[in-house]
Write a structure and sequence with these properties.
Layout: E1 3-8, E2 22-23, E3 26-27, H1 28-37, E4 43-48, H2 51-59, E5 63-66, H3 74-84, E6 92-95, H4 105-116, E7 123-129, H5 133-137, E8 143-146, E9 152-156, H6 169-173, E10 177-186, H7 187-195, H8 200-205, H9 209-214, E11 219-223, H10 235-248
Parallel strand pairs: 1-4, 1-6, 4-5, 7-11
Antiparallel strand pairs: 2-3, 6-10, 7-10, 8-9, 8-10
Helix pairs in contact: 3-7
């Protein structure tokens, strides 16, 4: 059994009001909510501090939690929901980003199952193989390296692992993994993570998951059975996703 919490905020530098932007006649947050519901989650909650988002979500029947507007991250919103709703420390929550209207429901179930099957981990996430040198070198693509047990060693915007003497271009990124920003947390670990201050590596790389690693919270990394579709950060992304959703109807 697992729950899904979808943190959603109105402010966005590149695409203000992003959760309420329309895609094929429905708001983005409604598309995301529908994907989360299809995952088999026992409960799906939208966590927001914005009344406009809350009202829109209630209109399509979503369970909404109004959270503190002072939260710096979606993780903080999840931790507040877990605390207010008195979830048990051993419960599993999946953080589904509110700008992923093409997220396969299977990914959500998969990351929750991975955490349940990995007692050594406090958190679980997914990755996909990197398919090009351009992707490997892109600092907006987060890379992850894991150990033989499938636990994360490090996440970086830099191209890792580095191949010192590649035999050809493809050998530079062979075996490299692209991290997918989908997380399952044990509630106890989520509360601990949210209570910790940002760390040096997290601040340098702008990657919150490094805070967990720096404090000894193990992260299981699975290979997604189904690669997710593109997320939405810009107007161009929105148009691309709208076209893809239109094609699938």
């Amino acid at each position: 059994m697992f729950r899904v919490v979808i943190p959603a905020r109105y402010a966005s530098t590149r695409l203000p009001g992003k959760p309420l932007r329309l895609i094929a006649g429905r708001t983005m947050i409604e598309h995301v909510h529908a994907r989360a519901r299809a995952s088999g989650a026992a409960e799906v909650v939208v966590a927001t501090d914005d009344a406009r988002i809350a009202d829109a979500c209630r209109r399509f029947g979503a369970d909404v939690a109004l959270t503190d507007p002072g939260h710096a991250t979606g993780t903080d919103r999840l931790a507040e929901v877990a605390r207010v709703r008195a979830y048990a420390d051993e419960d599993v929550i999946v953080n589904v980003q509110g700008d992923e209207p093409l997220l396969p429901p299977a990914n959500v179930a998969e990351v929750a199952a991975l955490l349940a099957a990995t007692p050594a981990a406090a958190i679980a996430t997914l990755a996909t193989p990197i398919a090009s040198l351009e992707e490997y070198d892109d600092p907006n693509v987060v890379k992850v390296v894991r150990d033989h047990a499938g636990l994360a060693l490090y996440f970086s915007r830099a191209p890792i692992p580095w191949v010192r003497e590649p035999k050809d271009e493809a050998a530079r990124y062979e075996g490299a993994l692209r991290h997918i920003g989908l997380y399952a947390y044990r509630v106890g670990a989520l509360k601990r993570l949210a209570a910790l201050a940002p760390t040096a590596l997290e601040t340098r790389e702008r990657l919150e998951q490094l805070r967990a690693l720096e404090h000894g919270l193990r992260i299981a990394v699975g290979i997604a059975a189904e690669p997710p579709g593109p997320g939405v950060d810009t107007e161009q992304d929105l148009a691309r996703v709208a076209a893809l959703i239109g094609e699938t109807r």
